[in-house]
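Researcher: Quick test of sequence recovery. Tokens follow.
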């Protein structure tokens, strides 16, 4: 089967220049906003926003919360899609819906969670709440890494514990 590539280009655009789709049906609670802010602080920007060109500017299809959470002057990667308004509406409806259809593997989540270390309480809360929903380890098990800074990255060497597998200062 031959598929069309609907990605026209990757562009870096200040977050504040992106236009939220007024038809976006997803609402983002404060806990989700805090968790995303924590991920930005600890890891950075790691995903592109999807948008389409309109006469008014770039209209967001996916990534509304990312655009809202960042400082408006922060450049974000945006995949510009060559889709019609109707296709954009279908994507707006379907992307999150198809993701939510996935089921969780508690054992794999537990294994991943045991390797995660964060000093950011919003990230730890997100992981702990998801873990609690699946009956795996509590939040305090992920709260043992100092907050990341360039100084820490240069000064602290980490090694993996042979007993528990967690990263810890050498």
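Model:
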């Amino acid at each position: 089967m031959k598929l069309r590539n609907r990605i026209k280009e990757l562009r870096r655009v200040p977050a504040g220049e992106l236009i939220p789709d007024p038809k976006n049906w997803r609402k983002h609670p404060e806990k989700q906003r805090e968790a995303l802010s924590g991920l930005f602080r600890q890891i950075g920007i790691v995903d592109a926003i999807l948008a389409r060109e309109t006469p008014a500017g770039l209209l967001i299809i996916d990534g509304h919360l990312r655009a809202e959470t960042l400082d408006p002057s922060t450049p974000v990667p945006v995949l510009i899609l060559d889709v019609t308004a109707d296709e954009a509406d279908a994507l707006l409806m379907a992307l999150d819906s198809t993701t939510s259809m996935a089921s969780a593997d508690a054992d794999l989540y537990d294994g991943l969670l045991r390797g995660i270390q964060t000093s950011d309480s919003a990230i730890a809360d997100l992981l702990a709440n998801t873990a609690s929903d699946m009956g795996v380890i509590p939040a305090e098990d992920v709260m043992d890494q100092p907050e990341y800074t360039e100084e820490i990255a240069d000064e602290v060497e980490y090694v993996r514990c042979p007993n528990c597998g967690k990263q810890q200062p050498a």
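The first helix runs from residue 30 to 42.
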